[in-house]
Amino acid sequence: MVSLIVITRNEEELIGQCLNSAAPFCDEAIVVDSFSTDRTVEIARGLGARVFQRTFEGFIAQKQFALEQARGEWVFSLDADEQATWELGQEIRGVLAVNSASAGYRVRRVLYHLGRYYTRGLYPDWHLRLFRREGARFGGHEPHASVEIEGAVAKLNSAILHFSYRDVADHVATINRLSTQAAVDGDAGALTAVRMVANPAWRFVNFYFLRGGFREGGRGLYAAMSAAFYVFLKYAKLYERRLRTHRRL
Fold first, then answer.
1. pLDDT means over runs of 10, the chain (249 residues)
2. Are residues 172 and 238 in the same domain?
3. Residue 107 CA to its chain's centroid (Å)
4. Residue among 40, 48, 46 nearest 8 (CA)
5. Domain end: 138, 162, 186, which one?
6. How many domains, the chain?
7. pTM for this predicted structure
8. Same-domain check for residues 72 and 58
9. Minimal CA–CA distance to 143: which of 82, 57, 209, 83?
10. I need a surface site. Which of 90, 128, 159, 236 has the fewest CB within 10 A?
11. Where does residue 69 rank: exposed (0-12), middle (13-18), buried (19+ CB within 10 A)?
12. Is 205 exposed, middle or buried (0-12, 13-18, 19+ CB in 10 A)?
């Protein structure tokens, strides 16, 4: 038995496609919703999902709660703005049909943005998304929740599609929101001002040159700049926190 887990907040535009994409190979769908004000809950229940509403306490806590509601031996985790490809469903059916020695599987995520899929090395975005429920838990650092398991982890060949941003404005709003959450748990140490310069510069070099963003033309430049901007904002907010702390001393 495979349980799909998804957390939501006002995802009426995408939740239906998300759930439908996993329905052919998942035996149950669990949606943990942070009191959406749109039709997210209605759509999810209409597609047969078990819906739980819970105050948002962070991505890690929300996904951990979803995991605890799962009844399957295996759990497949998706974000509401993601879809499993048909090929991935077939591959998952195949690996679970045999007595797998793996405790989990990493899946490549392909971003769709600015009118195209980023299929090259710019986003080598691998995530542990299929795993045995027993002994699994969510950890990591906000806002990036990650699955922690014991045992061997393998990779699947097929992909998840990621429809994360409607447009540039939506992307900037997401960067602002996620950088704020990342700064909450970050270390506002003495080198924060230095990292506010050095870390974004490294992120740009990594995305644009090492990962081959320059081969993507303007889209690659945009990806590298936006990735660097996220890092800059995170450290800028940490630096702001450091200044406020020192003014109170």
1. 97 97 98 98 98 96 98 97 97 90 94 82 82 96 91 95 91 94 87 96 94 88 94 96 79
2. yes
3. 12
4. 40
5. 162
6. 2
7. 0.85
8. yes
9. 57
10. 90
11. middle
12. middle
